[in-house]
Amino acid sequence: MELSQRLIYTLMNKGFAWVGRASWRTLDFLSGWIYKSLTRGLRYRRTLVAAHLQQAFPELSEKARQDIEKAFYQLFADWMVEVAFMHARGWEAVAERFEIKNLHLFDEAHDRGQSVILAMGHQFNWEWGGWVLRRVTKAPILCVYLPINAAGPDRFFRELRGRYGTEMLPLGRMGARLARIRHLTHTLILMADQSPSDLARAHWIPFLNRLTAWHGGLERSAQLGDYRVLFVEIVRVARHRYEAYPSLLTDTPAALPPGELTRQYVAALEASLRRNPENWLWTHRRWKHSPPGLLSSPEEAIQNRQKPEIEEGARR
């Protein structure tokens, strides 16, 4: 790791630990400041978020979509201070504020030697959920993640997420690792709302009023390992308090026709987002690509509108 990245890692490690020891009153004040910085100062991806919400909820009024946008950015700001809280305080403090329901769905499978795939989206606060799951279920946990380009932040989040024994598995190494442990009962966490890079093997399924590309890795892994597949919905029940609701998608993934498991997951995620639309990472670039012959996605349209301005600036 380069010196600059080691410095970033050290600053994150010490800074989050120092901030996370503050009271909730102080953390809420800090969250309010972060919210204002994201929405007014930096205007962090606000054009993109607005385009996503307009596509997803065209039936809502502009005012209603703006309310969702504001609520999302406040949750995003809360997530940042909650990461500091977990880094400084540890599992016991997090477990008081995050409860996982329906734990029998894990126990049933693990008791008969069947591994579990937990397919979930980026719903707040997924970071807390990973910690709690590790301590309240029996089997080892592997969590597939997309490495961060910067080495310092990547190391910080890998160590944070793996503090209690969860094995962090980079996306590119998932297949080989799963092949080696296929006879060991475990739980595999997949953040299955990531945009795929391999479009040739992606499943194109409607999602929030847009034909959307989905990873094929969920189906391939589930079928090869004969996993029980659970979808988990995270619900914010109060500020800094969450409940997670796992539900069964299938016990026999190999018996499903191609694309069916992905369709079930997408339907469950969309239903959850329609119930609580603010509780998802709307800044995530979910619609990077469009199938041939379709109009541009919201993200492509924004990029195309910006191109003339960029080119004009370059000529100047």
Annotate the secondary structure layout.
Blueprint lengths: L2 H18 L3 H18 L4 H11 L5 H28 L1 H5 L2 E3 L3 H8 L4 E5 L5 H11 L4 E5 L5 H11 L5 E4 L3 H7 L6 E5 L11 E5 L2 E5 L2 H9 L2 E11 L2 E10 L9 H16 L22 H18 L1
Parallel strand pairs: 1-9, 2-5, 2-8, 3-4, 3-5
Antiparallel strand pairs: 6-7, 8-9
CATH class: Alpha Beta
Which CATH architecture would you pick? 3-Layer(aba) Sandwich
Largest sheet: number of strands, sense, barrel closure:
7 strands, mixed
Residues in helix, %: 40-55%
Low-confidence stretches: 308-316
CATH-defined fold name: Glycerol-3-phosphate (1)-acyltransferase
Order of helices and strands: HHHHHEHEHEHEHEEEHEEHH
Strand percentage: 15-25%
The chain-level mean pLDDT equals 91
Specify the structural class: alpha/beta
**Number of discrete helical segments:** 12
Q: Gist?
A:
This protein is an alpha/beta fold and 316 residues long.
